[in-house]
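ugh ok so i messed up the first submission bc i forgot one of the chains. this is the corrected input, ALL of the components this time, i swear. 457 residues overall. if the numbers dont match what u have on ur side tell me asap before i send this to the collaborators (the ones from the other lab, u know who)
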Amino acid sequence: MQVELNVNGRSIAVDVEPRCTLLDCLREEIGLKGTHAGCEHGVCGACTILLNGEPVRSCLMLAVQGDGHAITTIEGLNPSPGELIVLQDAFCETHGMQCGYCTPGMILAGQALLARTLSPSRAEIVDAISGNICRCTGYGQIVEAIALAAERLRTANQKPGGA
Amino acid sequence: MKPVAFEYERPATVAEACRLLASDADARVLAGGQTLIPMLAMRLARPSRLVDIARISELSGICDEGGFVAIGAATRQVIAEREPLIALKVPLLAKALPWVGHAPTRNRGTVGGSIANGDPAAEIPLVAVTLDATFLVQTAEEKSELAASEFYVGPMITALPEGGILIAAHFPVWAEGRIGAGFHEISARKSDFAIVAAAAQVALDADGRCTALAVGLGGAGDTPVRLDAVAETLIGSRLEDKLVRDAVAAATADLETADDLHASAAYRSRVAATLARRAIADARAEATGGRHAG
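and heres the new structure output, hopefully the right one now
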């Protein structure tokens, strides 16, 4: 089936079988391998993308369901090649990753939260990543990374020491 | 972990969707896909054709109909969760929605999908049974209405007719008194399927006496159940702790509970009674806190 997808602001026509998940389409047809394939049945969150700005699991969507939506993958966050967004920098600084498998999903889930609020409580951060499994870090540093990014974004345009 | 091949159709109307379903006994309805697509991936479901109803406009939306709030079957769970009308008119549903899956699945999952799937541990069916909601169903031949309590026959088994589509759910609005709701659930991890969930909505008069009460349990047995005996005993009282404890204990004494890998039947019974008590206590506290019927 022909389907036209809007991925990271670019319109891409693909020809896929109806059974092809959006995850497989992004990785195999479009070549965006930053969306990771984990459990492939909606449990792990490694394949998280943003659909119209909200986190969803790309393994739980068919590619043919994807037309007419704005799809954002991890590759679509960066303003220019090689440049990290504030949240990615925070993950590096707090050691919010080890093997990196869950990281794209964690970043996108975190980014969706930060788009809603720059003052998330710890409970809100934990809730925002509750659908994403990490088997290395124990989550502590991931929560720390999102909190650090929120703080930096919140205070980015304030004078030092002033509110 | 890849589905078998199937055809994909996206009809524009319910009538067309019904025709497609009637013409192929192995066709399945696809809405949010948050349960069906994993079943496809594991090849536990092998449909010949998927009929995608998610973009049929007549199936989406939340509407205040006076005596009830109508929720279109293809309305995304996240839309219902953020809808002020539901918080105001059907407070128990508003309490339960944040417990449904987790945020990424609520962004895609639909209210009707959860209802039609009929998982015994699911929160929306529990609220529907507790509040005595009505489901609208359409087939190629006819439209019909079913009470939520008649709809659930067994685990993942419903009275939805063959080739039928769930159109909408009507959740009753309680119009009198001070209304409060309580919802409790335990699971192995946050967002996992409930081992047991309990839901309660109460109405109190100006004197603090209970004028209406609905209590239900999910995950305990094969289908969600409403504990009518608890309501019968407690209406007219002030929902004192001891009365509530005794009424819940009596109503859950013979409850048939499931025994599986996650919890024994005895554990489920004990937890069911405890959570039901807590849900009623929370509902009473919220009603006492001054919420007025909308």
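quick check: Residues 140-155 of chain A form the longest helix (16 residues). that seems consistent at least. Chain A has a mean pLDDT of 94.
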